[in-house]
Amino acid sequence: MRGKALVVALVAAASVVGYAPAAQAAAPTVAVALGDSYISGEAGRWLGNTDAVGGSSAGTDRAWNGTNVDPARVYGPTYSSGCHRSDVSPLSGAALGVDRLVNLACSGATSANVLPAALGGVPYKGEAPQVDQLATVAAANRVKLVVLSVGGNDLGFGNIIASCIEAWFWGDYCADDQQRNVDAALPAMRSGVSASLAAIRGTMRAAGYADADYRLVVQSYSSPVPRGANIRYSDSGWNRWNMGCPVVNYDATWVRDRLVPQLSTELRALAAAGGAEFLDLRDALDGREICAKGRIRVTTAKAPSDLTAEWVREFWSSETEGRQQETFHPNAYGQKALSRCLTLLGAAAKGNYRCANTAGAGIDGMRLTAA
After folding, report:
1. Which of 77, 118, 125, 191 has the fewest C-beta atoms lying within 10 Å of its C-beta?
2. Which of 144, 147, 140, 133 is nearest to 22 (CA)?
3. How remote is the C-alpha of 99 from its chain's centroid?
4. End-to-end CA, the chain
5. pLDDT digits (tens, 9 = 90+) for 66-80
6. Are 110 and 103 in contact (CB under 8 A)?
7. Is the pLDDT of residue 285 over 70?
């Protein structure tokens, strides 16, 4: 009954706003991003991490305009709202053979913010539910690709990281307690992601699209931290705090080898059930995470480089250098790497894929393999 109610609600909405089928030959083609911070472009402000504070932060702060810091240079008007759609978001830098790229994702969003209002969707940070925005885009354009990143916030990923940082501070660990919390939240996450996929399909059908007219892709997440054994700073002392990765080895290994793979496995199953393709990003930042061995911090003598810098934004205990919500998200290099993954996906046949980097290579070394 729920599926029938969904179709009725979406068809009714389409008739109210007067949608015409979007498969008009003259309409511009578009690719659309929906979901959370992992596709909005959160932390795209930064080119690696550095000990330098203020000004250009040794060349890492893209918000520096030569006189002062202006984050709107990177995030545009979404800096003030907190959606943080950066100019290097995965969609923004992807070559997908379309006329326009439309980023509707918002940092912090859950599946409730993706669902249309007719199905209980909730506005977020001053914006309408994302599928309602998609309906408007679909009516005026020919949508060729929809990429969805959602589920992490339904599981409370941000709270998990905060708990692990707090545990490090007190000489404790978070993994066991947080695994129980994740397992308890999984049923609601599954329901939310499934409903989001059904709502996207229903909205597109109501706008005149057949399922084969466009590609629907669910993407997963990468670990912000390496396995504990691959962190280049000692598990004791204040180095991990000072260098922006205050997580104990046990927790880091849990995030990298259990939490992220578990979420990827869940999302792949949900994508399959919802008739969507799947892009597995669990290994996209492998070896490039915050504090990973082989990476270096940027200094005035060592300019930012995708070949040497970390691809994840470090933790700052204050907001003197950016907002804390940027913590542990892919930075500008990480975002560009994910853009490369989308470019490769767009050129590949429909299917499920895994995107990973190549050891010793930069952003251009991202590679796509069948999952």
Report:
1. 77
2. 140
3. 23
4. 34
5. 999 999 999 999 999
6. no
7. yes
